[in-house]
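Protocol step 4 of 5: obtain the predicted structure for the target chain.
Materials: sequence only (see below). No template structures provided, no constraints applied. The aim of this step is simply to have a reference model before the mutagenesis design in step 5. Sequence pasted as it appears in the construct record:
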Amino acid sequence: MDKLLVYGPARLSGSVEISSAKNSTLKLMAASLLSRTPILFKKIPKLRDLNTMRKLLTNLGAKIEDLNDEGDLRIDASQISDTKAHYDIVKTMRASILVLGPLLTRFGEASVSLPGGCAIGARPIDIHLKGLEALGAEIELQEGYVTARAKRLVGANILLSFPSVGATENILMAAVFAKGETVIENAAREPEIIDLVQFLVALFPELKILGAGTSTIRISGIERDSKPNHQLEYRAMGDRIEAATYLIAGMMTKSPSVTVNGIEAYTMTSVLEVLKSMGAIIEINENKKSITLKYNNIIKGAIIDTAPFPGLPTDVQAQLMALMICADSSSVITEHIFENRFMHVPEMQRMGAAITLRGNVATIQGGNKLKAAPVMCTDLRASAALVLCGLVAEGTTEVQRIYHLDRGYEKLEEKLKILGAKLERIKSEN
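Step 4 output (C-alpha coordinates):
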Protein backbone atom coordinates (compact mmCIF):
# COMPACT_ATOMS: atom_id res chain seq x y z
CA MET A 1 0.00 0.00 0.00
CA ASP A 2 1.21 3.51 -0.81
CA LYS A 3 2.17 5.80 2.04
CA LEU A 4 2.74 9.54 2.34
CA LEU A 5 5.69 11.27 3.97
CA VAL A 6 4.80 14.71 5.31
CA TYR A 7 7.72 16.94 6.25
CA GLY A 8 6.90 19.43 9.00
CA PRO A 9 6.48 21.99 10.20
CA ALA A 10 5.20 23.83 7.11
CA ARG A 11 3.93 27.33 6.44
CA LEU A 12 1.34 27.39 3.66
CA SER A 13 0.25 30.26 1.42
CA GLY A 14 -1.25 30.76 -2.02
CA SER A 15 -4.34 29.48 -3.80
CA VAL A 16 -5.67 26.15 -5.09
CA GLU A 17 -8.49 25.10 -7.40
CA ILE A 18 -11.18 22.99 -5.80
CA SER A 19 -12.33 19.88 -7.69
CA SER A 20 -15.91 18.94 -8.43
CA ALA A 21 -17.50 17.42 -5.36
CA LYS A 22 -17.08 13.67 -5.01
CA ASN A 23 -20.26 13.39 -2.96
CA SER A 24 -22.24 15.11 -5.70
CA THR A 25 -20.58 13.56 -8.74
CA LEU A 26 -21.31 10.05 -7.45
CA LYS A 27 -25.04 10.81 -7.36
CA LEU A 28 -25.04 12.48 -10.78
CA MET A 29 -23.35 9.45 -12.30
CA ALA A 30 -25.97 7.19 -10.71
CA ALA A 31 -28.72 9.48 -12.04
CA SER A 32 -27.38 9.04 -15.58
CA LEU A 33 -29.09 5.62 -15.48
CA LEU A 34 -32.39 7.47 -15.92
CA SER A 35 -31.39 8.78 -19.35
CA ARG A 36 -31.79 7.15 -22.74
CA THR A 37 -29.45 9.70 -24.31
CA PRO A 38 -25.76 10.39 -23.64
CA ILE A 39 -24.73 12.97 -21.02
CA LEU A 40 -21.50 14.96 -21.06
CA PHE A 41 -20.04 15.39 -17.57
CA LYS A 42 -17.41 18.13 -17.20
CA LYS A 43 -14.26 17.80 -15.12
CA ILE A 44 -14.93 14.55 -13.30
CA PRO A 45 -12.23 14.24 -10.59
CA LYS A 46 -9.82 11.33 -10.78
CA LEU A 47 -10.84 9.58 -7.58
CA ARG A 48 -11.06 5.96 -6.50
CA ASP A 49 -14.77 6.18 -5.57
CA LEU A 50 -15.68 7.69 -8.93
CA ASN A 51 -13.71 4.97 -10.70
CA THR A 52 -15.72 2.44 -8.72
CA MET A 53 -19.01 4.05 -9.80
CA ARG A 54 -17.73 4.10 -13.36
CA LYS A 55 -16.98 0.38 -13.18
CA LEU A 56 -20.41 -0.27 -11.71
CA LEU A 57 -22.19 1.63 -14.50
CA THR A 58 -20.09 -0.13 -17.13
CA ASN A 59 -21.00 -3.54 -15.69
CA LEU A 60 -24.67 -2.56 -15.93
CA GLY A 61 -24.17 -1.89 -19.64
CA ALA A 62 -23.47 1.84 -19.81
CA LYS A 63 -20.89 3.06 -22.31
CA ILE A 64 -18.42 5.57 -20.86
CA GLU A 65 -16.01 7.54 -23.01
CA ASP A 66 -13.12 9.73 -21.88
CA LEU A 67 -13.05 12.88 -23.98
CA ASN A 68 -9.86 14.62 -22.83
CA ASP A 69 -7.32 14.93 -20.01
CA GLU A 70 -9.52 17.47 -18.18
CA GLY A 71 -11.83 14.80 -16.83
CA ASP A 72 -14.67 15.34 -19.33
CA LEU A 73 -16.49 12.11 -20.08
CA ARG A 74 -19.65 10.96 -21.81
CA ILE A 75 -21.97 8.44 -20.18
CA ASP A 76 -24.45 6.64 -22.43
CA ALA A 77 -26.91 4.51 -20.44
CA SER A 78 -29.30 3.94 -23.35
CA GLN A 79 -28.48 0.24 -23.60
CA ILE A 80 -28.45 -1.01 -20.01
CA SER A 81 -28.21 -4.79 -20.13
CA ASP A 82 -28.26 -5.69 -16.43
CA THR A 83 -30.08 -4.37 -13.38
CA LYS A 84 -27.96 -6.14 -10.78
CA ALA A 85 -25.12 -4.35 -8.96
CA HIS A 86 -22.76 -7.11 -7.91
CA TYR A 87 -21.01 -7.52 -4.57
CA ASP A 88 -17.44 -7.43 -5.91
CA ILE A 89 -17.93 -3.78 -6.88
CA VAL A 90 -20.45 -2.56 -4.32
CA LYS A 91 -18.46 -3.88 -1.34
CA THR A 92 -15.92 -1.04 -1.63
CA MET A 93 -18.32 1.92 -1.73
CA ARG A 94 -21.57 2.67 0.08
CA ALA A 95 -22.75 5.12 -2.60
CA SER A 96 -23.36 2.12 -4.86
CA ILE A 97 -26.79 1.79 -3.24
CA LEU A 98 -27.80 4.92 -5.15
CA VAL A 99 -28.23 2.99 -8.40
CA LEU A 100 -31.21 1.21 -6.79
CA GLY A 101 -33.72 4.05 -7.24
CA PRO A 102 -32.83 4.93 -10.87
CA LEU A 103 -32.75 1.29 -12.03
CA LEU A 104 -36.03 0.46 -10.28
CA THR A 105 -37.99 3.41 -11.65
CA ARG A 106 -36.69 2.99 -15.20
CA PHE A 107 -36.75 -0.80 -15.56
CA GLY A 108 -39.20 -1.94 -12.90
CA GLU A 109 -36.63 -3.99 -11.02
CA ALA A 110 -33.18 -3.71 -9.51
CA SER A 111 -30.90 -5.75 -7.30
CA VAL A 112 -28.01 -4.21 -5.36
CA SER A 113 -25.58 -5.87 -2.99
CA LEU A 114 -25.60 -4.47 0.53
CA PRO A 115 -22.91 -1.76 0.40
CA GLY A 116 -19.49 -1.32 2.01
CA GLY A 117 -17.16 1.67 2.40
CA CYS A 118 -15.56 3.47 5.34
CA ALA A 119 -16.10 1.72 8.69
CA ILE A 120 -17.28 4.84 10.51
CA GLY A 121 -20.65 3.60 11.66
CA ALA A 122 -23.65 1.45 10.84
CA ARG A 123 -25.21 3.81 8.28
CA PRO A 124 -28.25 1.56 7.68
CA ILE A 125 -30.15 1.73 4.39
CA ASP A 126 -33.56 1.06 5.93
CA ILE A 127 -34.60 4.68 5.30
CA HIS A 128 -33.91 4.17 1.58
CA LEU A 129 -35.94 0.96 1.49
CA LYS A 130 -38.92 2.30 3.46
CA GLY A 131 -39.10 5.24 1.03
CA LEU A 132 -39.09 2.96 -2.01
CA GLU A 133 -41.73 0.72 -0.38
CA ALA A 134 -43.90 3.79 0.15
CA LEU A 135 -43.68 4.37 -3.61
CA GLY A 136 -45.02 0.86 -4.20
CA ALA A 137 -41.86 -1.23 -4.50
CA GLU A 138 -41.72 -4.81 -3.26
CA ILE A 139 -38.43 -5.25 -1.37
CA GLU A 140 -36.63 -8.50 -0.64
CA LEU A 141 -33.38 -9.01 1.26
CA GLN A 142 -31.76 -12.27 0.25
CA GLU A 143 -28.18 -13.58 0.20
CA GLY A 144 -26.71 -10.14 0.81
CA TYR A 145 -28.70 -8.40 -1.94
CA VAL A 146 -31.54 -5.89 -1.89
CA THR A 147 -34.01 -6.64 -4.67
CA ALA A 148 -36.77 -4.15 -5.52
CA ARG A 149 -39.63 -4.63 -8.00
CA ALA A 150 -42.53 -2.50 -9.21
CA LYS A 151 -44.28 -2.30 -12.59
CA ARG A 152 -44.46 1.43 -12.01
CA LEU A 153 -43.87 3.40 -8.87
CA VAL A 154 -46.66 5.64 -7.59
CA GLY A 155 -46.12 8.98 -5.89
CA ALA A 156 -46.61 9.15 -2.13
CA ASN A 157 -46.03 11.29 0.93
CA ILE A 158 -42.85 10.05 2.59
CA LEU A 159 -41.68 11.19 6.03
CA LEU A 160 -38.03 10.32 6.62
CA SER A 161 -37.15 9.27 10.16
CA PHE A 162 -33.81 11.08 9.72
CA PRO A 163 -32.80 13.60 7.04
CA SER A 164 -30.53 11.10 5.30
CA VAL A 165 -28.76 12.53 2.27
CA GLY A 166 -28.51 9.18 0.48
CA ALA A 167 -32.12 8.23 1.17
CA THR A 168 -33.36 11.62 -0.01
CA GLU A 169 -31.37 11.23 -3.23
CA ASN A 170 -32.44 7.63 -3.87
CA ILE A 171 -36.12 8.39 -3.33
CA LEU A 172 -35.85 11.58 -5.36
CA MET A 173 -34.40 9.74 -8.37
CA ALA A 174 -36.95 6.93 -8.03
CA ALA A 175 -39.77 9.50 -8.03
CA VAL A 176 -38.76 10.90 -11.44
CA PHE A 177 -40.80 8.24 -13.30
CA ALA A 178 -43.35 7.62 -10.53
CA LYS A 179 -46.99 8.30 -11.32
CA GLY A 180 -48.23 11.49 -9.71
CA GLU A 181 -46.61 13.61 -7.02
CA THR A 182 -44.08 12.45 -4.47
CA VAL A 183 -43.52 14.53 -1.33
CA ILE A 184 -40.40 13.90 0.76
CA GLU A 185 -40.70 15.38 4.24
CA ASN A 186 -37.78 15.80 6.65
CA ALA A 187 -35.65 15.67 3.51
CA ALA A 188 -31.92 16.34 3.63
CA ARG A 189 -31.08 19.97 2.83
CA GLU A 190 -27.45 19.55 1.76
CA PRO A 191 -26.15 21.50 -1.26
CA GLU A 192 -25.56 18.16 -3.02
CA ILE A 193 -29.35 17.66 -3.05
CA ILE A 194 -29.75 20.99 -4.84
CA ASP A 195 -27.08 19.96 -7.33
CA LEU A 196 -28.85 16.68 -8.07
CA VAL A 197 -32.20 18.43 -8.56
CA GLN A 198 -30.65 20.98 -10.91
CA PHE A 199 -29.17 18.11 -12.91
CA LEU A 200 -32.45 16.17 -13.10
CA VAL A 201 -34.42 19.23 -14.20
CA ALA A 202 -31.78 20.02 -16.82
CA LEU A 203 -31.94 16.40 -18.04
CA PHE A 204 -35.74 16.25 -18.26
CA PRO A 205 -37.30 19.62 -19.26
CA GLU A 206 -40.81 18.32 -18.37
CA LEU A 207 -39.78 17.45 -14.81
CA LYS A 208 -40.88 19.72 -11.99
CA ILE A 209 -39.18 19.52 -8.58
CA LEU A 210 -39.86 22.08 -5.86
CA GLY A 211 -38.24 22.62 -2.47
CA ALA A 212 -34.65 21.45 -3.03
CA GLY A 213 -32.59 22.79 -0.14
CA THR A 214 -35.61 22.76 2.19
CA SER A 215 -37.02 20.00 4.38
CA THR A 216 -39.93 19.35 1.97
CA ILE A 217 -39.29 18.33 -1.63
CA ARG A 218 -42.10 17.84 -4.16
CA ILE A 219 -41.51 15.82 -7.34
CA SER A 220 -44.12 15.68 -10.12
CA GLY A 221 -43.33 12.40 -11.86
CA ILE A 222 -43.06 12.11 -15.65
CA GLU A 223 -43.52 9.22 -18.10
CA ARG A 224 -40.63 6.85 -18.70
CA ASP A 225 -40.61 7.78 -22.38
CA SER A 226 -40.35 11.52 -21.68
CA LYS A 227 -37.73 13.08 -23.93
CA PRO A 228 -34.46 13.96 -22.17
CA ASN A 229 -32.17 16.84 -23.07
CA HIS A 230 -30.11 15.51 -26.00
CA GLN A 231 -27.27 18.01 -25.50
CA LEU A 232 -26.86 18.11 -21.73
CA GLU A 233 -23.47 19.15 -20.38
CA TYR A 234 -23.11 19.30 -16.61
CA ARG A 235 -20.44 19.90 -14.01
CA ALA A 236 -20.99 19.07 -10.36
CA MET A 237 -20.69 21.70 -7.65
CA GLY A 238 -17.33 22.42 -6.02
CA ASP A 239 -16.25 20.12 -3.20
CA ARG A 240 -17.03 21.93 0.06
CA ILE A 241 -15.22 19.30 2.16
CA GLU A 242 -12.04 19.62 0.12
CA ALA A 243 -12.25 23.41 0.36
CA ALA A 244 -12.67 23.23 4.13
CA THR A 245 -9.67 20.93 4.41
CA TYR A 246 -7.32 23.40 2.69
CA LEU A 247 -8.64 26.37 4.66
CA ILE A 248 -8.09 24.46 7.90
CA ALA A 249 -4.58 23.55 6.72
CA GLY A 250 -3.90 27.25 6.18
CA MET A 251 -5.03 28.16 9.68
CA MET A 252 -3.13 25.30 11.33
CA THR A 253 0.11 26.37 9.66
CA LYS A 254 -0.52 30.03 10.52
CA SER A 255 -0.68 30.97 6.88
CA PRO A 256 -0.72 34.64 5.92
CA SER A 257 -3.26 33.77 3.22
CA VAL A 258 -4.76 30.63 1.68
CA THR A 259 -7.42 30.89 -1.03
CA VAL A 260 -9.69 28.18 -2.42
CA ASN A 261 -11.22 28.80 -5.85
CA GLY A 262 -14.27 27.19 -7.41
CA ILE A 263 -16.44 26.97 -4.31
CA GLU A 264 -19.66 28.72 -3.30
CA ALA A 265 -19.50 30.04 0.24
CA TYR A 266 -23.12 29.20 1.09
CA THR A 267 -22.27 25.50 0.88
CA MET A 268 -19.91 25.77 3.86
CA THR A 269 -21.31 28.59 6.00
CA SER A 270 -21.16 26.54 9.22
CA VAL A 271 -17.47 25.69 8.71
CA LEU A 272 -16.57 29.30 7.97
CA GLU A 273 -18.38 30.44 11.12
CA VAL A 274 -16.38 27.97 13.22
CA LEU A 275 -13.11 29.14 11.66
CA LYS A 276 -14.01 32.77 12.34
CA SER A 277 -14.93 31.93 15.94
CA MET A 278 -11.47 30.38 16.31
CA GLY A 279 -9.82 33.59 15.14
CA ALA A 280 -9.52 33.37 11.36
CA ILE A 281 -10.17 36.25 9.00
CA ILE A 282 -12.43 35.03 6.19
CA GLU A 283 -12.84 36.95 2.92
CA ILE A 284 -15.46 35.82 0.38
CA ASN A 285 -15.59 36.75 -3.30
CA GLU A 286 -18.99 35.57 -4.52
CA ASN A 287 -18.38 36.58 -8.15
CA LYS A 288 -15.17 34.57 -8.42
CA LYS A 289 -16.44 31.75 -6.20
CA SER A 290 -13.41 32.03 -3.96
CA ILE A 291 -12.76 32.09 -0.21
CA THR A 292 -9.60 33.38 1.47
CA LEU A 293 -8.49 32.58 5.02
CA LYS A 294 -5.92 34.70 6.84
CA TYR A 295 -4.26 33.82 10.14
CA ASN A 296 -4.87 36.52 12.76
CA ASN A 297 -2.19 35.66 15.36
CA ILE A 298 -4.46 33.39 17.39
CA ILE A 299 -6.20 30.02 17.28
CA LYS A 300 -8.95 29.87 19.88
CA GLY A 301 -10.60 26.74 21.20
CA ALA A 302 -14.20 26.00 20.21
CA ILE A 303 -17.21 23.91 21.17
CA ILE A 304 -18.88 22.31 18.17
CA ASP A 305 -21.54 19.72 17.31
CA THR A 306 -21.85 17.87 14.02
CA ALA A 307 -25.32 17.97 12.45
CA PRO A 308 -27.12 17.62 9.13
CA PHE A 309 -26.95 20.67 6.84
CA PRO A 310 -27.08 23.57 7.55
CA GLY A 311 -25.23 22.33 10.63
CA LEU A 312 -21.56 21.45 10.80
CA PRO A 313 -20.79 18.48 8.50
CA THR A 314 -19.41 15.34 10.10
CA ASP A 315 -17.02 15.11 7.13
CA VAL A 316 -15.07 18.08 8.55
CA GLN A 317 -14.99 16.90 12.15
CA ALA A 318 -11.60 15.17 11.97
CA GLN A 319 -9.93 18.10 10.21
CA LEU A 320 -11.30 20.56 12.79
CA MET A 321 -10.00 18.30 15.55
CA ALA A 322 -6.54 18.60 14.01
CA LEU A 323 -6.90 22.39 14.11
CA MET A 324 -8.08 22.31 17.73
CA ILE A 325 -4.88 20.53 18.77
CA CYS A 326 -3.10 23.73 17.70
CA ALA A 327 -5.48 26.02 19.61
CA ASP A 328 -4.47 28.11 22.61
CA SER A 329 -7.25 26.61 24.78
CA SER A 330 -9.33 23.47 25.04
CA SER A 331 -12.10 22.46 22.62
CA VAL A 332 -15.02 20.04 22.66
CA ILE A 333 -16.53 18.11 19.74
CA THR A 334 -19.80 16.21 19.96
CA GLU A 335 -20.31 13.78 17.07
CA HIS A 336 -24.02 13.23 16.38
CA ILE A 337 -23.94 11.51 12.97
CA PHE A 338 -21.65 8.45 13.10
CA GLU A 339 -20.86 6.48 16.24
CA ASN A 340 -17.38 5.37 15.12
CA ARG A 341 -16.06 8.62 13.76
CA PHE A 342 -13.32 9.15 16.35
CA MET A 343 -11.06 6.37 15.07
CA HIS A 344 -8.41 8.97 14.16
CA VAL A 345 -7.99 9.96 17.82
CA PRO A 346 -5.47 7.21 18.77
CA GLU A 347 -3.34 8.15 15.76
CA MET A 348 -3.37 11.81 16.76
CA GLN A 349 -2.45 10.79 20.30
CA ARG A 350 0.57 8.96 18.92
CA MET A 351 1.75 12.34 17.64
CA GLY A 352 1.32 13.98 21.05
CA ALA A 353 -2.27 15.21 20.99
CA ALA A 354 -4.08 15.29 24.33
CA ILE A 355 -7.62 14.11 23.55
CA THR A 356 -10.14 12.54 25.92
CA LEU A 357 -13.10 10.54 24.65
CA ARG A 358 -16.37 9.93 26.46
CA GLY A 359 -18.89 8.30 24.17
CA ASN A 360 -19.61 10.66 21.32
CA VAL A 361 -17.80 13.59 22.96
CA ALA A 362 -14.13 14.45 22.43
CA THR A 363 -12.28 17.00 24.56
CA ILE A 364 -9.14 18.36 22.92
CA GLN A 365 -6.51 20.06 25.05
CA GLY A 366 -4.96 22.94 23.15
CA GLY A 367 -1.36 24.06 23.08
CA ASN A 368 0.31 20.69 22.53
CA LYS A 369 3.20 20.45 20.10
CA LEU A 370 2.87 17.55 17.72
CA LYS A 371 5.82 15.32 16.86
CA ALA A 372 6.11 13.12 13.81
CA ALA A 373 5.18 9.44 14.11
CA PRO A 374 3.99 6.63 11.87
CA VAL A 375 0.19 6.83 11.70
CA MET A 376 -2.45 4.75 9.95
CA CYS A 377 -5.49 6.01 8.05
CA THR A 378 -8.84 4.56 9.09
CA ASP A 379 -11.24 6.39 6.76
CA LEU A 380 -11.30 9.15 4.16
CA ARG A 381 -11.63 12.26 6.33
CA ALA A 382 -9.45 10.89 9.12
CA SER A 383 -6.73 10.46 6.49
CA ALA A 384 -6.87 14.13 5.57
CA ALA A 385 -6.75 15.10 9.25
CA LEU A 386 -3.59 13.06 9.82
CA VAL A 387 -1.91 14.76 6.86
CA LEU A 388 -2.84 18.11 8.40
CA CYS A 389 -1.28 17.03 11.68
CA GLY A 390 1.87 16.12 9.75
CA LEU A 391 2.04 19.65 8.36
CA VAL A 392 2.51 21.12 11.84
CA ALA A 393 4.46 18.28 13.50
CA GLU A 394 8.19 18.35 14.10
CA GLY A 395 9.86 15.84 11.80
CA THR A 396 8.64 13.49 9.09
CA THR A 397 5.20 11.96 9.56
CA GLU A 398 4.59 8.67 7.78
CA VAL A 399 0.92 8.36 6.84
CA GLN A 400 0.07 4.77 5.97
CA ARG A 401 -2.89 3.27 4.08
CA ILE A 402 -3.51 6.41 2.05
CA TYR A 403 -5.76 4.57 -0.37
CA HIS A 404 -8.49 6.11 1.78
CA LEU A 405 -7.27 9.56 0.71
CA ASP A 406 -7.39 8.57 -2.93
CA ARG A 407 -11.10 7.86 -2.56
CA GLY A 408 -11.97 11.51 -2.08
CA TYR A 409 -9.10 13.99 -2.59
CA GLU A 410 -7.90 14.69 -6.11
CA LYS A 411 -4.21 15.61 -6.39
CA LEU A 412 -3.84 16.20 -2.65
CA GLU A 413 -0.05 16.17 -2.68
CA GLU A 414 0.10 18.41 -5.75
CA LYS A 415 -2.25 20.99 -4.28
CA LEU A 416 -0.50 21.05 -0.90
CA LYS A 417 2.83 21.48 -2.69
CA ILE A 418 1.38 24.45 -4.57
CA LEU A 419 0.66 25.95 -1.15
CA GLY A 420 4.23 25.30 0.00
CA ALA A 421 4.04 21.95 1.78
CA LYS A 422 6.67 19.25 1.40
CA LEU A 423 5.27 15.78 0.85
CA GLU A 424 6.35 12.59 -0.83
CA ARG A 425 4.31 9.58 -1.92
CA ILE A 426 6.09 6.28 -1.48
CA LYS A 427 4.71 3.72 -3.91
CA SER A 428 4.03 0.22 -2.69
CA GLU A 429 6.36 -2.46 -4.03
CA ASN A 430 3.48 -4.95 -4.15
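Step 4 remarks: Residues 195 and 222 are 20 Å apart (CA to CA). Confidence is low (pLDDT under 50) at residues 117-123.
Proceed to step 5.
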